Structure formats: C-alpha cells, structure tokens
C-alpha cells in the first residue's frame, strides 16, 4: 500500500525500547502474544506499535482496531499515540470491547432486528424490563429473584450463547428450567423496544459477524491490525469476536495481544485466563515475546511482589528483573495498627509528610479491596484538608444506600424534613404511588404541616388505602420507636434498629445484584461510624459538612480506588490498607471460590503492589469492626507470604487487646462504644464483646457513666448506673473499669 507518512531514518521512539520490546514492535505481521509481568512495558509496546504501524505507513489510523480494558485506558492510549505522532489521533477504532461493538452495531443493527438508533439500557432499565417479562411466568421471586435470573442471562451472554443455543442441560439450575424461555422472551422484548443491554452489544455483533460473511469480509478488509491490552481478562464472547475479526482467509492474522496471567482478576465476571494459554493454538504461527525487565518499580517492590505471587500454583511463571539499574529503592513497609481509625490516621500523616516534601498528590493512591474501606480514609483526608478523588466510584457519602440511610436518620432527627421523607417513603417499596404522594403533599400544604404529620393524619382518618396503609403505619411506628430509643439506648443502637425494622437492610439482602453485598458492607460501616459521634444530630451535622467540602479538589489530588480499578495504572506511592484475613483475601471470595478464589485474591495483591513505582505501604489492623463488632483481626496470609528480605515491619500489634483497652476512654475518639446489628451479632460472636462481663463488674458507659452489672443475658446487660439508675445496655457499649 502507499505510504501515508514518509518514513525517515531509525525513528527515535524505537530507541526508547529494549531489544525485546523492539522485537515485539518490529514483528508487525502475523499473530503475536506479549506475555509479561507487571510494569514490563506491555501497554507501552502496544501504544508504540500503534504509532509504528501508522508512521511506517502500514495502515491508516482507521485500519487499526485497538481494544483497552477501560475507557480511561482508551483515553490514555489515544493521548500517547497522539504524542508519538505529534498530532491529535482522530477517527481511531480505539476503545473498550463494548464501545467498539456499539459503534459497529449501529452500522448493522438491521441484521438483528434493530434500527441504528437503538437504545442501550442501563442496569435499572434491564431489570425493570425483565420483571415485566417475568410476570406471566408466575415465578416465586423470593426463590428466584429477577436479579439472579438477570445474572444467569448475562453469564450466557458472556459465553456467547444466544437463546437458541441454550441446551436443556444448561438450563436446570434456575426458575425450574424455564430460564431459557425467559431469556427468549426478554430478547424479544428488547427487540420490540429497539433496545440492547450491555451484553447484547458483544453478542449481537458476534452473531452478525458469524452469520454474515459479507460483513465479516468488510471488516477483514478494513482492519489490518488488531491490538488488545489486558488480554488475560477477556471473556468467551470477547474472545470469539476477536477471533472472527482476526482470522482473515489466506492471510496472516495481524493480531497482537498483551497480557499477564498473574494479573487475571476478573474471573468473577466471566474472564477466562485460558484464552491467553491457548493463543498459540488459535493463531498458528504465533510468536510469543516475553518481557522480563520491569521499568516501573524498584527492586524491593518487585522482590516483594514476585515473592508473593510465587505462592500461586496455577501460573505460567515468569521472571521479573528491575529495568532501571539505579532503582534499589526502599523496602516495602508493612505496618500494623490498632484499628481502622489508627490506620487512617497513619496514612493521613504519611501523606501530609510526603506532601510537605513536595511529592505530587496525583502520584499517591490508596488501593482498597472493598468499597466500604474508603470511608475512614475519606474522613481523615477531609479533616486534613488533603484533596482526593474516589476513582471509578462514588465518594462514600454519595453512594445511594448511604444517602438513603442518612435520609432515614434525618427524618428521625427532624420529622419535618420533607425532602428526606420523600426519599425514603417508598424505599423499600411500600405501595406509595405518584398520586398517593401528591395527595399527601396536598394535605400537608392545606394543613401547613410536614409530610410525616400529614401521613399520620391521613392514616388516622383512613385516607390511605391498600398496601400503603399498613406499610406506612409500620414505617411511622418504626420512626417513632427509633426516636424513643435514641434516649434510652443511644443513637447507634437506635439507628441500627431503624435500618433493620424499616425493611431497608432487608431490601438489599433480597437484592441479588452483584453490588448488593458491597452496599450492605457500606451500611454496616456507616452504622459503625456513628459511634464516633456524640449523638445523631452531631453525626448529621458532620455529614452535611463533609458533603459540603466536595469537589473542591483541583487537578493535583490523590486517588482512592479499588484494587480492581487500579489495573494497568501506576503511582509513585501506593498505600495498601486492610491486609487482614476476611478483608483481603475477602471472606466472600474464599467461601465461594475456594483455592481458585484465593489465587485470584493473591493476583489482586500482586496487582496492588506492582502499581507502586517507589514506595508501597501495606497495613493491617489488629482490631476491626466487622459486621459492627470488634474482632481481633489476623494479618492477611499475604503479609506472611511476602519475602522477609524485601519488607520492613513497623508497629506493634502484640497483645492488641490489652493495649486497646488501655487507651483512655476519651469521648468521641475511643473505639467504644460499638454496636452490632442484632441478627448478625448472633452469627458472628465478637471475640471481645462478652469477655469479663459478669454480674458485679463495674463498667463505664459513654452516656450513663459508671455503674455495676446486675444481670447478663447474652449480649444484653442490666446495669445499675450510679447517676442514671438501672438501664439495659448492650455489652459492647460498656467498658470494664
Ligand atoms: P501492567 O502489567 O501493570 O499493565 P505494563 O506491562 O503495561 O504494566 P507499562 O505501563 O507499559 O507496563 O510500563 C510501565 C512503566 O515503565 C511505564 O511508566 C513505562 O513508561 C515504563 N517503560 C516501559 N518500557 C520502558 C523502557 N524500555 N524504558 C524506560 N521505561 C519504560
Ligand atoms: Mg499495561
């Protein structure tokens, strides 16, 4: 083909690569797999290859198909390619699998019965639609919640299975073997609405390529080169789509995939690490290039990460050498702290110190295993006035479940808070429709009373009918009971009851969508954090102030994100908190995934450490309030597995319980009081809760002062307080003195 851009002498961009990387770029034709560890320049190879293909005149910008794992990565690659080209790169086929498929599907929508203006449904819409589809089936939705059925359909789509391809053997587990039928109807409804869900983008496009050789041939002519980043995390349908596009008749498949089996962390979303292992079989004549020099991290960080991942059995095994000879670096720090507040304080102090030394904030990241962990750090960073961003997610207090729970609290605190009441009146569903709500508003306006009072009056007068009548009466009773309980049992217990009794917690327990467990964890964390405030009013004021400090972060802010979200990124300094058994490795993954799950968690730890260029700080707390209870936490097995010569241990967790109790019980900063969700309390007995709580023991309670235990019943104590008189309290609320 004619050269688009004149080729000059040995281009400078190739000189910035090592020989292996250069080989990976100069073998432009034929299938190529770059299989290499973290930070070895895989993404750099892909980007440079992109530019090299263009600069050497092998293809025009729109003749290269490049797939990245996230939109952010796509943006970055576009910028890097533009920088190499010296001009903005336009019209590229560069994006995530979904983005690329959406673009293609708009051109061929009629083949699957859609028009080019089809809508892409979000998850809420998907579920609403599925519920409509489910109606005639009369399925026991308690047993087979729509979210779970949605999950089954999505997994089929991930595997490239259209409704007709579902065999009876596939369809036994759910809804009495009627899932395939439901799937068919659901797809039918989507078509009627001229809509697609996320999974359809890939599925439809793959079907079109499979069934219409003319379309496929068109893309074969079109795409001369295919580039794929993070290949280890492709799922079956993505793999099928790639294979169709890459196999051109009688021509080499110019497909280049880069990946690292040690960084496969999305098997829970259907990713198949095997795809990388069978590359050579799928693309005969494939070359495999291994890169062993890591240019990102210091020798110490690499040593720690490599030592850890060596504990995985299922891996290809790769060697990593430091690429920069000068980069010995500091050992990875492993810091033990007392509890999560201590951990947040420690991290905050370190960040202040780094900032004072001129460390750019944008080069610092806190990487957590689970969303709930961000709260303590966010609070601390706000207190210290350090700008931060929660990347790939919402800040703690912006999350829907947290806003709902706070709305409940606001109504308890201030019954005339109409806005808050409106937010929760039908969450969970209580049969209140738009017209019903309008009537309540009218009543409130006429009588010039708050909405809650209007509801009470209307209930009294029999003006609310049907399911709403009972449900709202129950809600009003719960709100009233909570207000009573505030004085008697304290705000933590009261709010815990409120969220349980209002059905709010149950709503998320019944929700089978993948983010529901994370939301429940966030709610537990919220209740836990209430203990840090004197009363409900104090807490709500704090939250209002926290919300107010949002979005003042300029460009130079540090990042908080999950380990999953950090894949492919790098920072000078990385904090890795919460390395405790149950948190990381996550208990849920261990329970559901067994040894495979554990290995995936270990890969996640490897991803975490290898994000750091200069310094990695791992921390673990001796005590953690899990499910609202203090439990003494065991350091993550990953801490043990880190090779001793690359780490430096700090802090002292020996006999943590004693030092923990030895701390002065200063109001507001002490780890007490604490609360347990009543139900969970039974299944997760706290190791510290009942110890020493016998009749006759003298105790201190934050609110009631000193007293002596007169009776013990499970975790409930009766205490004769010296000033406040006899009270029933939960054992975790008192401290033995
Ligand atoms: P990950 O597995 O985490 O995705 P990766 O293999 O994609 O990592 P890159 O992000 O491409 O690695 O590169 C890691 C860092 O090393 C980047 O800052 C990159 O610019 C730098 N780098 C890569 N190759 C070289 C080289 N030959 N010389 C100097 N620096 C390099
Ligand atoms: Mg990369």
Automatic annotation (TrEMBL):
Annotated ranges, domain UvrD-like helicase ATP-binding: 15-298
Any one of the GO CC terms: cytosol
Reaction(s) catalysed (UniProt annotation): ATP + H2O = ADP + phosphate + H(+); Couples ATP hydrolysis with the unwinding of duplex DNA by translocating in the 3'-5' direction
Domain of life per record: Bacteria
Annotated keywords: ATP-binding, DNA-binding, Helicase, Hydrolase, Isomerase, Nucleotide-binding
Enzyme class: isomerase
Biological processes annotated in GO: recombinational repair; response to radiation
Residues covered by the UvrD-like helicase C-terminal domain: 299-568
CDD domains with a match to the protein in the record: DEXQc_UvrD, SF1_C_UvrD
EC number: 5.6.2.4
Entry function: Has both ATPase and helicase activities. Unwinds DNA duplexes with 3' to 5' polarity with respect to the bound strand and initiates unwinding most effectively when a single-stranded region is present. Involved in the post-incision events of nucleotide excision repair and methyl-directed mismatch repair.
Annotated family: Belongs to the helicase family. UvrD subfamily.
Protein's name in the database: DNA 3'-5' helicase
Species of provenance: Komagataeibacter europaeus
Taxonomic lineage of the native organism: Bacteria, Pseudomonadati, Pseudomonadota, Alphaproteobacteria, Acetobacterales
């Amino acid at each position: 083909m004619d050269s688009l851009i004149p080729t000059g002498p040995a281009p400078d961009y190739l000189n910035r690569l090592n020989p292996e990387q250069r080989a990976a770029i100069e073998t432009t034709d034929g299938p190529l797999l770059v299989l290499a560890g973290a930070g070895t320049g895989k993404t750099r190879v892909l980007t440079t290859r992109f530019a090299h293909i263009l600069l050497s005149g092998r293809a025009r910008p729109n003749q290269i198909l490049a797939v990245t794992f996230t939109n952010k990565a796509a943006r970055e690659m576009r910028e890097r390619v533009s920088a190499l080209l010296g001009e903005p790169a336009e019209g590229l086929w560069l994006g995530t699998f979904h983005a690329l498929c959406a673009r293609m599907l708009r051109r061929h929508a009629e083949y699957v019965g859609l028009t080019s203006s089809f809508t892409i449904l979000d998850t809420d819409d998907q579920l609403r639609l599925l519920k409509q589809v489910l109606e005639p089936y009369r399925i026991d939705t308690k047993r087979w919640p729509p979210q779970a059925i949605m999950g089954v359909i999505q997994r089929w789509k991930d595997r490239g299975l259209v409704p007709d391809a579902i065999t009876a053997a596939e369809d036994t587990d759910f809804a009495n073997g009627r899932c395939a039928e439901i799937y068919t109807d659901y797809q039918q409804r989507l078509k009627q609405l001229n809509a697609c869900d996320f999974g359809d983008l890939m599925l439809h496009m793959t079907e079109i390529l499979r069934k219409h050789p003319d379309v496929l041939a068109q893309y074969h002519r079109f795409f001369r080169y295919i580039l794929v980043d993070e290949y280890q995390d492709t799922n079956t349908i993505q793999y099928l789509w790639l294979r169709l596009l890459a196999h051109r008749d009688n021509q080499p498949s110019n497909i280049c995939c880069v990946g690292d089996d040690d960084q496969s962390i999305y098997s829970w979303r259907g990713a198949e690490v095997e795809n990388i292992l069978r590359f050579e079989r799928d693309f005969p004549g494939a070359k495999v290039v291994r890169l062993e020099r890591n240019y990102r991290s210091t020798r110490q960080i690499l040593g720690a990460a490599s030592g850890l991942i060596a504990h995985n059995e299922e891996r290809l095994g790769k060697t990593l050498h430091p690429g920069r000879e000068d980069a010995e670096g500091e050992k990875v720090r492993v810091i033990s702290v007392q509890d999560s507040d201590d951990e947040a304080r420690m991290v905050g102090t370190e960040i202040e110190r780094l900032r004072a030394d001129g460390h750019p904030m944008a080069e610092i990241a806190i990487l957590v295993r689970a969303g709930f962990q961000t709260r303590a750090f966010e609070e601390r960073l706000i207190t210290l006035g350090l700008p931060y961003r929660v990347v790939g997610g919402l800040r703690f207090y912006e999350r829907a479940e947290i806003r709902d729970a706070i709305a409940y609290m606001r109504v308890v605190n201030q019954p005339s808070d109409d806005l808050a009441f409106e937010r929760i009146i039908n969450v969970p569903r209580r049969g209140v429709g738009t017209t019903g709500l309008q009537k309540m508003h009218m009543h409130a306006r006429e009588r010039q009373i708050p909405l809650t009072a209007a509801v009470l009056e209307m209930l009294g007068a029999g003006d609310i009918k049907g399911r709403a009548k009972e449900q709202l009466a129950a809600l009003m009773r719960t709100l009233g009971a909570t207000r009573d309980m505030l004085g008697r049992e304290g705000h933590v217990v009261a709010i815990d009851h409120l969220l349980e009794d209002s059905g709010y917690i149950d709503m998320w327990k019944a929700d089978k969508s993948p983010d529901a467990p994370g939301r429940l964890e966030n709610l537990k964390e919220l209740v836990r954090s209430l203990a840090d405030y004197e009363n409900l009013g104090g807490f709500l004021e704090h939250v209002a102030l926290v919300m107010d400090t949002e979005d003042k972060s300029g460009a130079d802010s540090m990042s908080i994100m999950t380990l999953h979200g950090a894949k492919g990124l790098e920072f000078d300094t990385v904090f890795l908190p919460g390395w405790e058994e149950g948190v990381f490795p996550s208990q849920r993954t261990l329970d559901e995934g067994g040894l495979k799950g554990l290995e995936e968690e270990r890969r996640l730890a490897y991803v975490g450490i290898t994000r750091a260029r200069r310094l990695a700080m791992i921390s673990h707390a001796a005590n953690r309030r899990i499910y609202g209870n203090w439990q003494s936490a065991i350091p993550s097995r990953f801490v043990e597995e880190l090779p001793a010569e690359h780490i430096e241990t700090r802090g002292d967790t020996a006999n943590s319980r004693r030092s923990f109790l030895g701390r002065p019980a200063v109001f507001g900063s002490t780890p007490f009081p604490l609360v347990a969700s009543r139900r969970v309390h039974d299944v997760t007995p706290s190791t510290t809760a009942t110890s020493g709580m016998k009749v006759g023991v003298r105790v201190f309670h934050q609110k009631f002062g000193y007293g002596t235990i007169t009776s013990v019943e499970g975790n409930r104590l009766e205490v004769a307080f010296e000033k406040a008189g006899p009270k029933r309290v939960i054992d975790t609320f008192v401290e033995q003195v």
